[in-house]
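Batch manifest, entry 17 of 40.
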Amino acid sequence: MGDTHGREATFRALCADREGFFAFLDAVAVGLAVVDEAGRFVWVNESLCRILGLPRDRLFGETFIRFVADTSAEQVMALHQANLDGQGGIPSEWVVLREDGGRVPVHVSPGRLAGPDGSRYGVICASDMRPQEGSQESLKRRAFQQGIVSEIGLFALSSGDMPGLFRKTIRLMASVLDVEMAEFFRFLSPDGAMRLEVGVGRPDADGSVYPPPEAGGMAAYVRAAKAPVVIKDYLREERFVPDPFFLAAGMRSGIGMVIHGRDGPYGVMGIHTREPRSFSGDDIHFLQSLANVLSEAVTRTGAEAALAASNHLGGLILEAVGEGIFGIDLTGRITFVNPATTQLTGYAPEALTGADPHALWHHSKPDGKPFPRGKSPILKVLEDGRRRHVREDWFWRADGRIFPVDYVVTPLLADGRISGAVVAFRDITERKKAEKALTYQAYHDELTGLYNRAFFIERLERAMRGLKSGGGGRFSVMFLDLDDFKFVNDSLGHTVGDRLLRGIAMRLWNTLDPGDVIARLGGDEFAVLVQGQGDATRGLDTAGRIHEELKKPSRIDEFEFFVSASVGIVDDVSAYEGVDEVLRDADTAMFQAKSRGKGKSEVFDRAMHDRASERLHLETGLRRAVEHGELYLAYQPIFRLSDLTTVSFEALARWRHPVRGLLSPAVFIPVAEASGLILALGDWVLRECCKRMRLWIDEHPGAVNMSIAANISAKQLMQGDLAARVARILDETRLDPRHLKLEVTESVLMENAELAVDILGRLRDLGIRLAVDDFGTGYSSLSYLRRFPVDSLKIDRSFVSNMDVNPEKFEIVRAIVQLARALNLDVCAEGVETEAELAGLVSLGCGLGQGYLYARPLPADEARTFIPPPGEECDALGDAVCPKFS
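Output type: structure tokens
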């Protein structure tokens, strides 16, 4: 017991001594400060000065609020008042602004204390959370510069020779930073002249006196600045008027900073270079450190009284901070603990003084295994004197519970020898919870709660390693894409789309067996890892269950959705080297499934890869085809069946491939649609056919009443600005909208009928004629057909072919013609190739047709010959001359 009291008495004796007590406070690695009710600093330690980049004297009287980033002054002040009232609520993570503009993340533990007169003070404990940085070279340079600062500091403490101190500082400063000019000016009075105390590389002599700094000049600007003033280029400086002296001397870059005295600015010092130079942060910090030493030297008088008052305040700070702080002697025994240490560990103060902290709270690892004393970072500091920051460790409470801590151990030195150490620690339980939440976020999709791409790739890599090593079973990989989900977002908005996607994700998850893994890769794409256990059919079986599940409707508010999915499967992963290849081939199989229609599955085979490669080559070639003039339009005449007079043309894209020769649209249009190139290709077709029609009208009088037709793809139709783009093309080509007809297939219209009604209405408002292409194949309802603002129906060639010998086809064509008549629409038959087919169509009252019987798709020059002479043309733009039915 006597030994315990002896250690405590020794510590309190150390605290009573100026140097010992302040060595203890400044050895604490965390920043400490006391602020009054207005938030003004009344005391700070060296660690906080380093964090904020300012000396103590610059901080006294400043409010801590101005150093808080990303939060309004009103919010910070409200939190400060809440802390003073004992309400808590101050966030533990802050970002502070350094004087040089840098941002420093800190962990804050608040506290409060009361003055003898009843005044209230807040205590701030701030830990720098920046990672340690710096290359070996920069660390060496920084260490050398700090050595110079230490040398100047020792000279200032051991000598009262102020002129000698300034000469030594300026000359070393110029040498270390390798500058051509450096100086220190002292202000002879607060608003008076300046005296050159020492200069390097200057033509004027030391002792030269200059007039007071002029407003708007460099000296006045530096004097008023609260941080080092860095001049990148005197010739381009706009903040102040550069001193002509420096310009005449050829100086280009420099740094100026103020030296503070007890009653205000004492002088200014600066460095200058002839070549433009970007000074590093270490250089600026080096100069600021020298300025701090000089400021301390000129304000030393009267410091003892202020220091004595600070000793008492420092003791109050240690009592009030929220982080645990304790001291140990050379034997590793506790010499001091603050109240936060007893609160965090659960030990009473009397049980801690003189106790072994390793035996109390650092004896074991979280798994219960002993933690050897020889490996304790705390005790190692007593051996080598090296400061240590342990970002994650575990302490044990008195009740046997364990908690995670972050701590810093700093050695205490007396006459250059280790006399003990100070440990500052904090409970990081909340940080660990946040890290756990971040880990969840890193591996889960935020919208659906399923695993995300990163997790799926890691799990797939692990499964592939197990398969190759023989330690894992067979498995399949599925790539799943919801069919036409984009239309939901486009028509009803992303809020409804997201709700639908969440519901579908849970339904997909419920179809899987235990052990299977599903992840959302992004958008409406999912991936599934199906554990096969030697069964090669598991992938297809799982895909079948998914298709059956999705046949059930999904309901969101008043809407009912039937959503299908296209699924690609790789059922044998053993031959693959990497996950990218597996996902690539599963994606290829999915696209193959999608090409067969909605709600289909495909198992990958090598032929698919070959087709995918061919598609990629076609896509690459198609991107340059327009630029290289490989694409052109062919024009197929559309004629009046009764007298075979041409009334219009349909423009059809053709590709003259440099290697494969002439390619039909059936080959490259699907590639253009899948790759998104169809939008650019569609605009090109529209522009070219409009230019051609304008040219024919200008050159041939018989074309003035004719029109030209172009096909619109699904992707084009779903673009909200389609009408605006068509109007722009018509304006560019000077074509009257009456001469343009746009054809959309029945199946495309029915994929999103409501949206189609709106977009077709906007096109119709422009004066453009509209046709339903391939009619009879898309299962459109009569109600929608009546709502579509179209002018004509085009009977699909599959019904026209052999209709003269196939009664069923004949009756279908009859029904379409009658439907068109009832709706007052034109009707045009596609693929008319025989006289018998022509006769049958005429007998049914079909007015228009196109096909090889009359003309194939032709180059522009040949198609031009089908324009009838003036006076014989049919007025295709008006019903009076060209009736809808003959």
